[in-house]
Amino acid sequence: MRVVLGVSGGIAAYKAVEVCRRLVDAGHHVVPVMTDAARRFVGAATFSALASEPVPDGLWEGGIPHTRLGQTADLVVVAPATADLLARYAAGMADDLLTATLLATRAPVVVCPAMHTEMWEHPAVEENLAILRRRGVRVVEPASGRLAGGDVGTGRMAEPRDIVACVAAWFGAPGDLQGRRVVVSAGGTREAIDPVRVITNRSSGKQGHAVAEAARDRGAEVTLVTASVLEPPPGVRVVPVESAADMEEAMRAACEHADVVVMAAAVADFRPKASAEAKIHEAPDLVLEPTPDIIAGLAARRRPGQVLVGFAAETDDAMARGRRKLDRKGVDLLVVNDVSAPGAGFDHDTNEVTILEPGGRATVVPLQSKRAVADAILDRVVARLQGESA
Ligand SMILES: Cc1cc2nc3c(=O)[nH]c(=O)nc-3n(C[C@H](O)[C@H](O)[C@H](O)COP(=O)(O)O)c2cc1C
Fold first, then answer.
1. 163: how many CB neighbours lie within 10 A of its CB?
2. What is the pLDDT of residues 81-99, one digit of tens each?
């Protein structure tokens, strides 16, 4: 693909050098376009040396560079996208080569915002981004972590490898989940005892996040409903939740139009019947009540053709319990996770599971990375979508 790589003037411009290199390594023809502010952070010579063409001088270099660039591009990626660049693009301004190219192109556009947390959370930035999303611009959300000047917070540009992975997932060879809407839940819910304490479980959310990432890489439009505190994979829509009740509401809304639902979250089975409004100072007599059965509710409301995947984390008699859960919940696939096995389950980077299906089919997935396990689960999901049953 011919990719115009727009670089605007944020500190993350130094990371755009690696985005450029990775896009070239992935076989793309890359033309870097820098704003004046970007040139204060990184020299144009660096991009010119790594890209497929040198950095153009600017709007007035001769000819009509913005229409040439805009019309010949297959994709425009802006990394980093400053608050200023997002504002100018949302307003339809064309006062430099990058914004003029953005207006002169019909190619898809990806923006990778990067800025301090205060700027990222400013309503002006949120509204500009909402405008751009409505116009079809794809956003690779910033991560949280170290920012310029020693601050820490949300706003740090996504890692170059993640940006290039999003480009490959969205615009590369169509994956087997291309055009499918996939909803994944992840993490252990937290049920309040009082404003300070919660009941939770050992789930890290790593397996659910790996499923979301794998679905993204296979071309799906992914919504991740997550109770995990881990950084979600970029390029997926994230709905953060805390309790089982939050998760039920978020899943109900997200799953209405979904083709695939993967319920990898470890939802609390019980919660305190009442949670105190102020911090408790004496050991309380906790009375617990069951939480809503989210997956049974999703199964009851599922749209025709929707593939529903449940998880069972067990420590003993895992297979028998898994089979009973498969029958009881009305799901298409039940991923049995014996969390007592070495290297498997909570917080590990590896996992081993058995995928059960109605009719008796069982796929044993041996110990490997959670990402590889995610792909094994999605292989069975794709088979079910294609009409293959057990
Ligand atoms: C040291 C420094 C770091 C900056 N980092 C950012 C940043 O990360 N994100 C951002 O939106 N603006 C940042 N700015 C402000 C932009 O450089 C400024 O808004 C500029 O006008 C952006 O121009 P451009 O969008 O045309 O590249 C920074 C400014 C300075 C001086």
1. 25
2. 999 999 999 999 999 999 9
- Which CATH architecture describes the domain 2-171? 3-Layer(aba) Sandwich (3.40)
CATH pick for 181-385 out of 3.60.120.10, 3.90.1200.10, 3.40.50.10300, 3.30.420.40: 3.40.50.10300
Q: In the chain, list all ranges with CATH 3.40.50.1950.
A: 2-171
Please tell me the predicted confidence (pLDDT) of residue 107. 97
Q: Tell me, yes or no, if the pTM score tops 0.90.
A: no
The dihedral of CA 335, 336, 339, 343: what is its sign? negative
- How many angstroms separate the alpha carbon of residue 9 from the centre of ligand 1? 5
How far is the centre of ligand 1, averaged over its atoms, from the C-alpha of 248 (Å)?
40
Q: How confident is the model at residue 357 (pLDDT cuts 50, 70, 90)?
A: very high
Token pair in block for residue 48: 């010119």
Q: Residue 152 has what pLDDT?
A: 79
> What is the best residue among 7, 11, 117 to mutate for testing ligand 1's pocket, by most ligand atoms within 8 Å of CB?
11
For ligand 1, is residue 37 a contact (CB within 6 Å)?
A: yes
Which residues have a Cβ under 8 Å from the Cβ of 5 and sit 6 or more positions away? 16, 19, 20, 23, 30, 31, 32, 33, 47, 51, 77, 78, 79
What's the rounded mean pLDDT across residues 152-165?
A: 92
Residues 6+ apart with CB under 8 A from 151: 116, 117
Pocket test for ligand 1, best of 36, 59, 82 (most atoms within 8 A of CB): 82
- The reported pLDDT for the residue numbered 390 is 44
Query: Is 201 among the catalytic positions?
Result: yes
